[in-house]
Amino acid sequence: MDDDIKRRRIGEFSVAPIGLGCMSLSYAYGTPPDPEAAQALLGRALDLGVDHFDTAALYGYGANEELLAPVIKPHRKKIVLASKCGIFRNADGVREINGRPAVLKKTCEDSLRRLGTEVIDLYYLHRWDKQVPIEESVGALADLLKQGKIRSIGLSEVSADTLRKAYAEHPIAAVQSEYSLWTRNPEIRVLAECRKLGVAFVAFSPLARGFLTGKLRDVTTLAAKDIRRQMPRFEPDNYAANLALLDEFSEIAATAGCSMAQLALAWLLTRGDHVLPLIGTTRMDHLEENLGTAQVALSTQTLSRLDALINQRTVHGARYVASTQAEVDTETFEEVRT
Ligand SMILES: NC(=O)c1ccc[n+]([C@@H]2O[C@H](COP(=O)([O-])OP(=O)(O)OC[C@H]3O[C@@H](n4cnc5c(N)ncnc54)[C@H](OP(=O)(O)O)[C@@H]3O)[C@@H](O)[C@H]2O)c1
């Protein structure tokens, strides 16, 4: 990334505007790359100036943190390393959301060991466990901070109300939630709340899990275990209707002189200085393309066209099925309308 692009803040840290999420290097979208290829991609990201890396205990149930460890070790002091607790594989081998203090503290110890580091710069509660008051989970993270095991606290997929309650317990450095042209939920409240409190907003799935790149045309070819198969927007009928939006989107990209992926990221970078897109890719060429967004400037007119073209009224299909929606605390447009 160019040195001259404006850096953005996450709590006490200053980072390049676009960070790298490492989830798909271990799971989520079909078969992940082999570890050597994944580590080569991480190395290339470092060469290109990426200094914010995001992982989680959940990703590959620890394998993703182990993958990162040797690559980041020589650069440890120059990067912001983020990981997450609160979703893990329990003793029965089942994925569990659990925000109890003892569980979070144990997960942190495991992550520190796997990451081969003494401290995690940004440690997120991956999901608010609705069985546990948010203050209790954040209190556990505050204890970890006092012990020097983490440097700052983040929350993922929380509402503005939950953020406020958490912040009253301990300052929060970042909220991480899905945000892109096709997922506007943060615009309901939490984005403004973050700005008010001085909290960074880390936007995950900024390319709509591939949709906004224009390259994913046929969702019937997705692997059986690909998590997009569980998402209503990727069901073939909804997806076909969504693809129709990309004709004009691709025209706008051509006029702006950039790729569709870059257009989607450039739009996101205009949503506030506190917004930091978190990209995810398994491919070197996609990494380079996405980081090239720094060169793209969009006119006010282009931004208005994009806003009108792809938004919660024009996209077909819900973000999540009901059971997954119940796991998150993010505000929905349906709730606001009622
Ligand atoms: N907190 C949470 O609950 C949560 C949830 C989801 C994700 N996240 C974080 O956010 C990160 C990013 O999420 P994401 O992976 O869903 O992001 P994304 O960038 O929206 O989507 C990634 C998908 O887009 C494809 N892609 C990326 N760049 C492309 C390009 N230039 N051209 C064509 N296809 C492209 C990737 O395929 P290729 O591999 O082929 O490039 C992959 O299938 C994750 O790694 C994770 O750290 C957090």
How would you describe this structure to a colleague?
It is a single chain. The chain has 13 helices and 12 strands. The chain has 338 residues and is of the alpha/beta class. It has one domain: Alpha-Beta Barrel (TIM Barrel). Helix 5 (160-169) runs parallel beside helix 6. The longest helix has 15 residues, at 101-115. Bound molecules: NADP nicotinamide-adenine-dinucleotide phosphate. NADP nicotinamide-adenine-dinucleotide phosphate is lined by residues 21-24, 29, 54, 156-157, 176, 204-210, 213, 215, 261, 278-283, 286, 289-290.
Q: Nutshell version of this structure?
A:
By secondary structure, the chain is α/β, with parallel strands linked by helices. The protein has 13 helices and twelve strands.
CATH superfamily: NADP-dependent oxidoreductase domain
Outline, from the CA principal axes?
Answer: globular
Q: Give the CATH topology.
A: TIM Barrel
Q: Strand-and-helix sequence, N→C?
A: EEEHEHEEEHEHEHEHEHHHEHHHH
